[in-house]
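ok so i was messing around last nite and threw this chain in just to see what happens. nothing serious, just curious
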Amino acid sequence: MANPIEFTPPKLQQIIEDFQWSDGREKAQMLVEYSENLPPLPQWVSADHDAMEQVHECMTPVFVQSEIKDGKIYFYFDVPKSSPTVRGFAALMQEGISGSTVEDVIQIPGNFFQPMELEKVLSAQRLHGISAILGHMKRIATNSLI
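result:
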């Protein structure tokens, strides 16, 4: 079976490796730090928030928007500050995937986060939400090819 990290963009690979080296408490703290560092939405996105797509599979309201510039896809997230783990995951996805090619995003395996061992700090429900966020990003990337 292939290692899921092999099919991830380099920035995301580095984030995965950082999580691999941390223990449970550090993993939770890293998610909180990512949460605190989620960039604000660009003005053009916040001005038309209704155009953002909601990840309905998440219990937390997660909204995502994308744009393609120079053959690269960029993602923007809006997640409430009151949900630091989901917000942190969205922030790490934004950092790790934005600027990748559409094809690279589509190839990210659904289980890419398993080596991060997030199950040590997140519930199964949160892990399902993480999968849903990635699935939504991949659908957006796929639809951009049409």
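not much to say yet. The longest strand covers residues 63-69.
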